[in-house]
Amino acid sequence: MTRVAVAASYGGPDAIEIVERELPEPSEGEVLVEVKAIGVNPFDYKSYSGALGTDASKLPIALGSEASGIVVAVGGAVEGPGGTIAVGDEVVVSGQNGTYAERILVPARFVLSKPEALDWKVAAGVLAVAGTAYDALESVGIKSGDTVLVHGAAGGVGSVVAQLALARGATVIGTARRQNNDALRAYGAEPVEYGDGLLDRVRAAAPNGVDASIDTVGTDEAVDVSLELLTDRSRLVSTAAFGRASAGGFLTVGGPASMERRRLASPVLLEQAGAGVFEVTVAKTFPLADAAKAHAELQSTHPRGKFVLIP
Ligand SMILES: NC(=O)c1ccc[n+]([C@@H]2O[C@H](COP(=O)([O-])OP(=O)(O)OC[C@H]3O[C@@H](n4cnc5c(N)ncnc54)[C@H](OP(=O)(O)O)[C@@H]3O)[C@@H](O)[C@H]2O)c1
Known about the structure:
Layout: E1 2-7, E2 16-21, E3 30-40, H1 42-49, E4 61-62, E5 66-74, E6 78-80, E7 83-85, E8 90-94, E9 103-107, E10 111-113, H2 120-139, E11 147-151, H3 156-167, E12 171-176, H4 181-186, E13 190-193, H5 198-205, E14 212-215, H6 220-229, E15 236-238, H7 242-248, E16 251-252, H8 256-275, E17 282-287, H9 291-298, E18 306-310
Parallel strand pairs: 11-12, 11-14, 12-13, 14-15, 15-16, 17-18
Antiparallel strand pairs: 1-2, 1-4, 3-5, 3-9, 3-18, 5-8, 6-7, 8-10
Helix pairs in contact: 2-3, 2-8
Residues 41-43, 46, 129, 132, 151-152, 154-158, 175-177, 180, 194, 216-219, 222, 239-240, 253-254, 258, 298, 304 line the site of NADP nicotinamide-adenine-dinucleotide phosphate (NAP).
């Protein structure tokens, strides 16, 4: 048996219920993982909020797409993206739905070795944000010498976008609320406060212009400022402004091609996180039973860094 958090209906965070589930033995190619920590992402609450539509036949909705833990059983000789997976291995699970659980049964292709340098909590929260960040950087071809405007540069995705862009040799102007400006400076980005007058502040911070922009916020302000500054709209990508992208002539990420690009990049991204090429910080941990509380907090102004659930 395992305890699992699911959304039993569409609505707010109180739609989340903790239920008990039977777990079968692993079939050929499957891995049973005892979960140590679970990364929380905005998609988790969007999956039952109605923001992505509603379909009663999908209820209850399995929550979560990433976790860290220990392998407790395998089905046959199991090969993951990084090689053989054995009982006792410390692993990261990424890309599989339903990680809000004490134990999860997953196909081996979603199971990677946890770098020793990452603790359980950080390891659980790295890949969703880093995969999205890498995907966004690739989609607009960020390279050395670019000046990049990153909207939401203190956020989970935005902070990795900014750090990986800097590692590629780009200059980064990052939007954030005032309290997060020092954190942006600490990793080498130029902070700009969002809100009224944003366009003028970005122009002052980037007197030679902006070559590309990555929006991780999705507000009209973020999109409008980027469109005003860029000469080439195909160098704007958003993780959130889906409604405006086709008419606006800019890109979004998140479809099947994105998922494949992220899956292929995951081993390297995990290695880079372990080696300190970029950092993911943990803002808060919550018991798995308090998943609803974590979702309510994540939807309002919240501390910088990842939220993590502990079973
Ligand atoms: N398409 C995809 O595949 C994909 C994948 C992952 C995430 N996403 C989406 O990307 C978005 C960000 O995810 P996340 O994990 O980075 O979330 P997050 O950690 O909560 O970060 C969001 C950031 O947005 C900033 N923000 C809030 N209001 C703002 C405003 N009015 N103007 C500018 N910035 C504002 C906040 O910065 P301050 O704290 O400085 O205020 C916050 O740090 C979410 O909508 C998520 O669903 C999409």
